[in-house]
Amino acid sequence: MKTTVIENIRTRINRSKPGNIFFISSFAEYDEEYITKLLASFVYDNVLVRISNGIYMKPIISKFGIVYPTNYEIVSAIAKRDKAKILATGNTALNQLGYSTQVPMNSEYITNGSARVIQVEGRTIKLKRSAPRNFEYKGVLMPVLVQALKAIGQKQINDNDIAITQRLLMEHPEPQTWEKDIQLAPAWIKKIIISIKKNIENAQMDR
Questions:
Q1: Which long-range contacts (C-beta less than 8 Å, at least 24 apart) are formed by 68-77?
Q2: Which of 32, 42, 43, 72 is the most exposed place for a label (fewest CB within 10 A)?
Q3: Position 202 confidence tier, pLDDT thresholds 50, 70, 90
Q4: Is the pTM of the predicted complex or chain greater than 0.90?
Q5: What residues form DSSP beta bridges with 128?
């Protein structure tokens, strides 16, 4: 017996892990208008939950209700779909690296993909298109560190920020990518990081 489109898609969703994110384009082999209506019907049947316009999720149910994905999980899914890169910036970068303990309700990311604003359960996720240079870093820490220090600002950086930066560089030295990545940083950030790196090296030599 030949299976229907509805059965095929329902089976695909059922076999996925709870929390898996789907887009209209996840079923690109079918007519877009048809898939839009079909996914809406799956929301009605509690097979999926709609987390934003055109974005759906196989629900994770806890005793407190539906567990929605984090902002990072959502933008990561979008980046994977679009074959794009994303990078935390602004308050999001500050929180991610521990410069701020306040979790921002509105998340900010830069991307080499399409700019967009996503509304999810009272949260706003902003994806802003940025220069290719910001995505040329090879390390994991350095690109986010640069964005965090930019968010603080050259004239606002204080001793506590320096201490946090030193801790991050000690915990994530990234020797294989250091030489290239530091050259990509803005001049004032480069100066600060190199100075901190020298302090770390001198302290290690004195031990």
A1: 68/120, 68/121, 69/19, 69/21, 71/107, 71/120, 71/123, 71/125, 72/107, 73/19, 73/21, 74/21, 74/118, 74/120, 74/125, 75/107, 75/109, 75/111, 75/118, 75/125, 75/127, 77/21, 77/23
A2: 32
A3: confident
A4: no
A5: 110
